[in-house]
Design goal:
The protein is α/β, with parallel strands linked by helices. The protein is built from 16 helices and 16 strands. Its EC number is 2.1.1.56.
Length: about 475
């Protein structure tokens, strides 16, 4: 019987209800090797190989050939499980026609993982590992390994290269990976971080919100423009989003941190309602219009914020003046410049408590350390120390900001102080506030019973910081 593809499709269709069940119409397999080797319904195929054409009979004689028989199979041992090749032979003693070997099942010989590993559930160790897994993107933030050194000094501890204060700061913050919200809660100083974020929220609500409300820049329900100098990884973007601003401009000396800040903004819920621009920028050595296009700076800012980074500019007078000039050139009259700085008075007090003959000019506790290079210093700028904070700052150079000198210098740029307070005093002043008190619970500074997760060492570290709004 000649092969009928329509008949074959019907017989092998899942819908077989109502079809006769005689052997002549019984369902049969359609695998290629079964069709070719089956004794029923033999299917002669014209060959197009060169040897077949040369040695075959003329077409008129081939038409008289009606019978096909299967060639004898190759003897195989019981242990031979390889698929055997087969061929058909015309009864008129024509040369054998090789046929294709049935297709092999997918069976790669150089797999990376075992074939049964894809559906295997993860072990407890793997589950624990992925709780703190932050993704392959973090790999680009890690430092490259140095090539193996065969010199005699290879076993000595590496010495940090002196590439300038700004260079060390950039290297530090570029090398710090971005972690998720869940992993951030495992930080050993999570109580201190929550406390600092709460203080900044108070600062923004009390002094930035009024300036934003008076802004002439409006977009639907949003209004106001913010310039975030030292935006880091974008930790304050959520705070400014809740303030319902129109425009956010973030700049930081660490280029990798700027990229992470932009990614954080792109995935925020308010990204569609806020215009945002980001750039890698050193406010100590560059003017703002050197890194941002003119349309970003076409309108002045209502608020300029600089959190935990003003002190880097006080290495020398030139860099401090450039910072203040960048602020006042792009801040509208009546706008607010807000920021946080180390408490110079507290740091110097701790330094003076050290024994007079001590060569080690460092102090701190289990989570932070401050190390001065010299006990005495003349002049306003350049009083250098190295600061370490567990899970936050890895021994970077900073500079004291003396408050009275800072006020005098800022006045030359029409910036005048409105409020100055230490973090501890902010806590005492606003812990019972109808808005900021409940905010402490929501930001996990304290629990519902008023107890804080900050231990004594974290509370001591917070005493070395103060914040200030000006103008």
């Amino acid at each position: 019987m000649p092969f009928d593809p329509v008949r074959d499709a019907v017989l092998n269709s899942p819908a077989t209800e109502g079809l006769p069940t005689s052997p002549s119409v019984a369902r049969r397999a359609t695998h290629l090797s079964v069709l070719l080797n089956s004794d029923s319904d033999p299917l002669p195929r014209p060959s197009s190989s060169l040897s077949q054409i040369i040695h075959s009979e003329p077409p008129d004689k081939l038409s008289s050939v009606t019978s096909l028989k299967k060639a004898p199979e190759r003897a195989s041992s019981p242990s031979d499980t390889r698929p055997s090749s087969s061929y058909f032979q015309l009864s008129s003693n024509t040369p054998p026609v090789p046929m294709r070997t049935p297709p092999l099942l997918y069976n790669p010989t150089q797999r990376i993982s075992p074939p049964d590993s894809l559906l295997k559930p993860m072990s407890k160790a793997e589950l624990e590992m992925y709780k703190s897994y932050v993704g392959t993107g973090t790999a680009r933030l890690t430092k490259r390994k140095r090539p193996k050194d065969d010199s005699d000094t290879a076993d000595e501890l590496p010495v940090k290269k002196s590439i300038g204060g700004g260079g060390v700061v950039v290297e530090h913050y570029n090398s710090r990976p971005e972690v998720g919200v869940i992993q951030r809660q495992d930080s050993p100083i999570i109580g201190l971080k929550n406390f600092n974020n709460w203080v900044k929220s108070v600062l923004i609500s009390k002094f930035a919100h009024p300036a934003l409300a008076a802004s002439s820049v409006r977009s639907q329900r949003n209004k106001g423009r913010v310039l975030d100098l030292g935006c880091g990884k974008g930790g304050d973007i959520t705070k400014w989003s809740k303030a319902k601003i129109c425009d956010y401009v973030g700049a930081d000396i660490a280029a990798v941190s700027v990229e992470q800040a932009q990614e954080r903004w792109e995935f925020s819920r308010n990204a569609s309602r806020i215009q945002a621009s980001f750039a890698s920028y050193d406010f100590c050595t560059q003017n703002l219009d050197e890194v941002f296009p003119s349309d970003v700076l076409a309108k002045p800012f209502d608020v300029v914020s600089s959190q935990f980074c003003i002190h880097y500019a006080f290495e020398k007078e030139e860099t401090a003046r450039r910072l203040l000039r960048n602020v006042t050139n792009w801040l509208r009259p009546g706008g607010r410049f807000i920021g946080t700085i180390p408490n110079a008075e507290q740091l110097l007090e701790n330094l003076q408590k050290l024994p007079p003959d001590s060569q080690d000019l460092s102090f701190g506790n289990s989570i932070y350390n401050v190390r001065f290079e010299s006990r005495e210093h003349t002049g306003v700028f350049g009083h250098k120390y190295w600061f370490f904070l567990q899970d936050a700052v890895e021994d970077v150079p900073e500079y004291l900001v003396h408050w009275d000198d800072f006020v005098s210098l800022a006045a030359e740029y029409h910036l005048h102080p409105l409020y100055k307070e230490e973090f501890h005093d902010v806590f005492s002043e606003h812990r019972d506030h109808p808005e900021f008190g409940p905010l402490m619970v929501r930001m996990r500074v304290v629990d519902n019973n008023g107890e804080t997760s900050m231990d004594e060492d974290q509370w001591d570290a917070a005493s070395n910081v103060q914040f200030l709004p000006t103008r």
